[in-house]
Amino acid sequence: MSSNTDVSLSSYDENQRSKFVRKAKEAPFVPIGMAGFAAIVAYGLYKLKNRGNTKMSLHLIHMRVAAQGFAVGAMTIGMGYSMYKEYWANSKP
Hints:
It is found in: Mitochondrion membrane. This protein is mainly α.
């Protein structure tokens, strides 16, 4: 059994930051969704102290739904934007 050591690893030379930047340029609303998700989670943790009489489980469910809604909304808008860019913006006669 021989091993081939001449395998090109150029696709693996990309570090995490450059990969993230490349992916963000391809789909710009995904990082926006990630940032919104993180912001809602941070806000939820901040408001955790001042939730009043609301149960902890109910507060966490509301924060999860808000964060997921923001992320799904950003992905949906991003999909619409990429469809517009691919199909309608390039179809000029």
